[in-house]
Every structure is written in structure tokens, then in C-alpha cells.
Amino acid sequence: MATSDETDDRVGETYRRRAGARVRNATRQVKRAARPVWDRVRFARQDVTAATPTLPRVAYLFIAPFFILFGLFLAFPVFYTVYLSFFEYQGVGEGSLFWVDLGPLYVEIPQIAQLSFIGLGNYARLLGNDLFWQSMFNTSYILAIQVPLMIGLALALALALNASFMRLKGVFRTAIALPVSANLVAYSTVFLLLFNEQLGFLNYVLAGVGVGPVPWLTDAFWARNTIIAAVTWRWTGYNMIILLAGLQTIPQQLYEAAEIDGASRWEKFRYVTLPQLKPVLLFVVVLSTIGTFKLFAEPYVITGGGPTNSTITIVQYIYRQAFVNFNLGYASALTVVFVAIVSVFSIVQIKIGGED
Amino acid sequence: MREQRRKDAVWRFLTYAFVVTMVVVMMVPLYWMLVAATLPQEQFLQFPPRLIPGTAFLDNFAALQERLDFVRTIRNSVLIAVVYTLLSLVLCSMAGFAFAKYEFKYKEPIFYTILATLVLPIQLLVIPLFLLMAQLDWTNTFRAIILPWAANPIGIFLMRQNMKSIPDALLESARMDGATEFQIFYRIALPTMRSSLAALAIILFLFQWDLFLYPLVILESADMYTIPIGLAQLTGFQRIYYDQIMVAATLAIVPMVVLFLVLQKQFVSGILAGSLKE
């Protein structure tokens, strides 16, 4: 009896379990049918996670995608530019640089360009080239005026908008920063019109007060200043926003303490604001310097480098040599020199700004 | 006392005057652009200049569209910038996470190598990249524009700086619960990085949106043009149609303004994070 009961129970148990399993299976299938894509994705993901390596090797998986693109499109071109600067470019490469043939495995590295070695010839050429020095002078001139002017304006605006009595801060801030959203070429074209000698709005206003007409685009001196005005217009608000945010991180107690000591407005600025703002200010100055060094679109659109190359910048000169005259080797040498100058500039700025 | 109060009032007045002047200076070119976009060319190129917007915007737009499919140009720009931004966000946040939270061989040298390229004006990789793309037969393609700067040094730097602030204990407890490293990354690390990601997204988008020299060299046919290239082509014709160019310029501003207004706060916090947490 007991045995049969047990057997019955066991049979019943098995039956119930099977039934349960069947029901569960059925519901799972219904669910799976309802969301087949989702489930497949989940199962696939589980397989992938089960197969991925664990610490510490997983770190390489995280950096691999970044690093492959970085190596191919950033690191390689940097080295290739240096390499190219010792050669004369003679045309797009044909055939292969070298190949490995192992029956089923055939690897071929194509020749990127046809080159002939000329050693330091490109560097000698640029040192003796008037247009190179002209473009260096133009860029330095624009840099020397534009960066201090823009940072000064941005700092003054940030201080004004940070003042406790200032109303409508958000509106002013947005309005002043709006030029950042103007497209590079779009705003350059607008400036081309604004500064037009005969029809431009600026000369119209100046004529109203009895000045002008100023040859904004056709005179070497004024053309450079037009470029400066354009770049300053676009980037002042951007820098102001960064400086403003920096100002807001300065602890209020510092100002209160300075006030108790009877500090004047200037002293508060000189001894509290400036030292506290230094890291942000440095950041802004370094980025602006690099940005102005790279100037290309504005002179390309507004003046075309003219009149008589008085606004041609280094990058524009490189562009002309590389993609108008196809002197790719020479242009690479120019690039190397240019990058060296910019790097030295940035390092010096950081060194000066960083020491305390 | 009264002397002091008068001084304060003068100071306030000068401050307001300065700010308002600057606002006007910033607005005049944008307003001028709008006026030019809404007037027929003959009316716009008059002296004295017209200062009140006209009603010819749609006519100018139709004329523009006839010469260069500018709707397509905008679409190209948006498509490239969005794909680039998303791809770069994935790459930079993953790599940034590894550099912030894992120990591995050659970690420091690798990171500083990447960082060194921050100082490089990367636009100047144009020559070797052009040769590379010509070799790959990738000229006049979007992938030639999108891929090269997807591994963005600024991006990895920002993400590493910000991800350092994630407490190790949080990651460790997830590890105890059996989470895999990828789950830890996208379930725990990424959600705390929302504002940094937004900030980086703006930086990346603006970077791609502004690229000029490189697409100028790579893109050849009009149906592939991005906004800057399209605009530059418009200024290059024998007769320059300023009205059409200004319509194009006005349309080109819209996506950036929207992005800027929506994400202004994250923009500021993200940029600061990059500059302060050195």
C-alpha cells in the first residue's frame, strides 16, 4: 500500500512537475513570441558577456576601439606628416610598398604616394620663402591683438554679469553667446557684407557720424583688423561663458573677508578674483591662442588672403601649397614647423601661468 | 556716504551701458543677416542700406534651392554631426572609463601619448589623411569625414577626468553582486555621467559642425556638401547672390541655436570640469 501510494505520489509529482514545466514552457514561448527580437538580443548579450575576459584584461577591450581609430587616423598621420616633409611629392601612389604572400594569406600594403627624397630641402625652401614669413607675420599680428582683446572683453563681460546688482543675467548671457552658434562660413559671409566698403552697414553708420568710408577689405591694415573683429565677435561670448562659470565657483567668504579689511573694488579684483580665476583663465587663453593660430575659414571667405597676401594665415598658406599647388611635401614641412611653434607657445603659456 | 552711493550708481550705469553695448554689437550682424535673407538682392544692395526685414524669404529660399539643394546640405551636416557625436561618445566614454578606473600595463604612457595630441592643431592632419583616404578610395564619402576624429583626445580627457569621481566602492559592490565589467560600465558608471556626456556631446557636435578645411578637401560632389562647404561654394560663383547666401546662413544657424539653448547648463559644467579638475 505504502509503496503504491509512494508510486502514485511519485507519478503524481512527476506529472505535476511535467505539467508545470509545460505550462511554463508555453508561457515562455508566448512571451518569446511576443518579444522575439528583444529576447534574442538578451540571449546574444548573455553569450557575449559570458565570453568577455575579466579583470584586468578587460581594460584593453575598453580602450581598443578608441585606440584603433586613434592609431589609424591620428597617430599614423602625425608620423606620416613628418616623414613626408623630407620628400618631394610626385603623385598619388601606384602599386604596393611591400606584400606578404603565404598562399591563402596575402597582405599588401599599398604605396600611399610617389615620393623622392630631398632631405631638408623643404625646410630650407620655407626659410627662404617670403610668403611664409608674410603669413607668419600676419598670423602673429592677428594673434597679438585678437587674443588679448577677446579675453579682456570676455573677462569684463563675465565680471559685469556676475555683479550682484545685475538683472536679466540669463538674457544677456544668451544674447552675447549666440554668435557661437553661427556657422563659421556663414558668419564670415555676413562680415564680408557688413564691412563692404560701398554698401556695408558699418560704413553707413560711420558716415552718419562723419567718418569714412573706411576701406575695410581693400587696405592691408584694415583688412587685418576686419579679420580680428570677426573672430572676436564670434568667440567672445563663448569665452565669457567659461569665465563666468569660473567666477561662480569662487567662495563668497573671500569677498566678505576682503570687504571687512576695507578692500576697494580694484583690490578685490586683483587679490581675490584674479588668483582664484587663474586656472580657468589659463585654460581660456591657451585654447584661444591655439584657435587663432589655426585661423583659416575667416580669411579664406572674407578677404581670400588679400589684399596682396596681407591677411594670408599660416594654415591658409599650407592649404594653398598642399591643395592648390599640390606641393604636399613642402606643405608637410610647413605643417611640422607650424605645429612646433604652436606647441612651444602652449607650453610656455602653461609654464608661465602655472608657476606660483 | 552719499559720495559713495553716487559712485556706486555711476558704476552700475557704466556696467549696464557696457553690457548693453556688447549685446547690440553681438546682435547687429545676426539681425543684418536676417534682413538680407528677407529682401530681394536689388533692394538689399542699396545705399543707404535697408534696415527693415522684407517678405522675400521664401522666394530667396526657392532660388537658393534651385542652385544648390540646401535642404540636403543641412541634412548632410546634421547626419554627419549626429553620427560622429554618438560614435565618439561611445569610444571616449569607454576608453575614459578604462583610464579612470582600471589598472593596466602602460596605462600612463598610453594616456599621455593621447593627451599630447591635444596640443596639435588637428586640422593640420589634412594632408596625410587626404592621401590615406585617396588610397582607401574613401574620398567623397561621409565615413571619411566621420571616422578620423571619432577618437577625440578632448573627449577621452574629459571623460577620464569626470569618471575619476565615481567612487570605487560603488563599482566594487556591483562586482560583488556578479555584474560583469560591461554591465558596471553602462548600468552604473554611465548614468552618473549624464551631464558630462551632454557637455561633451556639445563640444563634439560643434567641432564637427565647424570642420571646414578637411571636408573641403574630401567632399567633391554637391550632393555630399556640408553646410560650410555649401556656403563657401555659394560665395565662389561669378555673381554672388547675397540674398540666397544669407538665407542659407540663417537656416544653418538654427540647429546650433536649438542645441545651445537646450543644453546651455551642461555645456558650462562640462567645460569647467575639463579645465578645473587637472
UniProtKB/TrEMBL annotation, chain A:
The keyword Cell membrane applies. InterPro entries: ABC_transporter_permease (IPR051393), MetI-like (IPR000515), MetI-like_sf (IPR035906). One of its GO terms (cellular component) is plasma membrane. It is found in: Cell membrane. Residues 136-349 form the ABC transmembrane type-1 domain. Keywords: Cell membrane, Membrane, Transmembrane, Transmembrane helix, Transport. Its main location: membrane. It is a multi-pass membrane protein. One of its GO terms (biological process) is transmembrane transport. Gene3D superfamilies: MetI-like. The keyword Methyltransferase does not apply. The chain crosses the membrane at residues 58-80, 141-163, 175-195, 201-218, 280-297, 328-348. CDD domains: TM_PBP2. Belongs to the binding-protein-dependent transport system permease family. PANTHER family: ABC TRANSPORTER PERMEASE PROTEIN (PTHR30193), INNER MEMBRANE ABC TRANSPORTER PERMEASE PROTEIN YCJO (PTHR30193:SF37). This is Binding-protein-dependent transport systems inner membrane component. The lineage of its organism: Archaea, Methanobacteriati, Methanobacteriota, Stenosarchaea group, Halobacteria.
UniProtKB/TrEMBL annotation, chain B:
Residues 74-263 form the ABC transmembrane type-1 domain. It is found in: Cell membrane. It is a multi-pass membrane protein. One of its GO terms (biological process) is transmembrane transport. GO terms for cellular component: plasma membrane. Coiled coil: none annotated. The chain crosses the membrane at residues 12-34, 78-99, 111-134, 140-159, 197-219, 239-263. Keywords: Cell membrane, Membrane, Transmembrane, Transmembrane helix, Transport. Belongs to the binding-protein-dependent transport system permease family. This is Binding-protein-dependent transport systems inner membrane component. The lineage of its organism: Archaea, Methanobacteriati, Methanobacteriota, Stenosarchaea group, Halobacteria.
